[in-house]
Amino acid sequence: MEGASFSDATSRIETVPGAGGLPRIAVSNPLATADIYLHGAQVASWRPAGQRDVLWMSPRSHFTPGKAIRGGVPICWPWFSAHPTDPALPSHGFARLRDWRVERAEAQADGSSVIELSLESDAASLAMWPHSFRATYRVVIGARLEMTLAVENRSGQEAVLSEALHSYFAVGDVRRCTVTGLQGRSYRDRSTGPTPAIQGQSALAFAGETDRVYLATTDTCTIEDPVHRRRITIAKSGSESTVVWNPWTDRARELTDLGEDAWPGMLCVETANAGEHSVRVPAGGRHEMSATFSVAAI
After folding, report:
1. Closest to 144 in 3D by CA, of 220, 200, 85
2. pLDDT tens for the 298 residues of the chain, in order
3. What backbone phi and psi angles, to 5 degrees, belong to 83?
């Protein structure tokens, strides 16, 4: 399937030119609207009916082949952060830099819409990661946003990977937000050093750059946003790490596709398998990781 196309009395799915001319799947149904770029299979927008967008997109993002889109939900795969042995390879892997193929686009009986995309190994991917694979990404757009990344190891050897659904949430002011669900968990904060620390029993609040990988956690997290007067819930499965990131002023200034003034309106709470929670997929095996977002008023 070259592009997505579906319409009935209440739902519409179509592939249209997006920012920078990149193909974008535009989804509209009674429960929500969404945008998904084929570049990186990147969910760029999810707006439940009657609500503001839940996802944040940088006003300075690139929309260019070969460059990552800054915002929405990038797929970091098959490695998270820098490559473990070759710093010349792209940060966060190659999945977010490749064009994915549409496999399915249709409405469901409950009013939601489902999009399935795929990516397969080729000579370019094998030069960076020596495993044949097929990845599928299933996105369900409705009152909840459900995303499932499934990977088949088609090589004859075990494949080790790390990954994240690097979700950027739109918040009113990160300095007034808190995150719950990580109390008592061990974490490493790359902005302060490699020594592990323990999250206290209070909710996580933000007063400076935060770049934490929380370890051995499968729990649901929530973002309390008093400015937008909503609670964003992030449930997950197949994930042993949670990443929390906001660049704050100095780091944001260094990121030319983000900008020094945009950071108060974003907060990343990411479903991940990172560091010691890298995944070992046996030859012929399969691995799935999923995240589900929902929103409620507070």
Report:
1. 220
2. 566 766 776 899 999 999 999 999 999 999 999 999 999 999 999 999 999 999 999 999 999 999 999 999 999 999 999 998 999 999 999 999 999 999 999 999 999 999 999 999 999 999 999 999 999 999 999 999 999 999 999 999 999 999 999 999 999 999 999 999 999 999 999 888 888 999 999 999 999 999 999 999 999 999 999 999 999 999 999 999 999 999 999 999 999 999 889 999 999 999 999 999 999 999 999 999 999 999 999 9
3. -60, 140
**Where do the H-state alpha helices sit in the chain?**
123-128, 248-254
Per-residue tokens: 37: 């770029």
- In terms of Cα–Cα distance, which of 298, 181, 143 is closest to 230? 298
Which of the residues are catalytic?
166, 270
pTM greater than 0.90 (yes/no): yes
Phi-psi region of 227 (alpha: psi -120 to 50; beta: other; left: phi over 0): alpha
Cis before 78? omega within 30 = yes
Fold of 5-297: Beta-galactosidase; Chain A, domain 5 (2.70.98)
Contacting residues for 198 by C-beta, under 8 A, at least 6 apart: 184, 185, 186, 187
Cα–Cα distance list, 97 to 36, 75, 285 (Å): 14, 9, 24
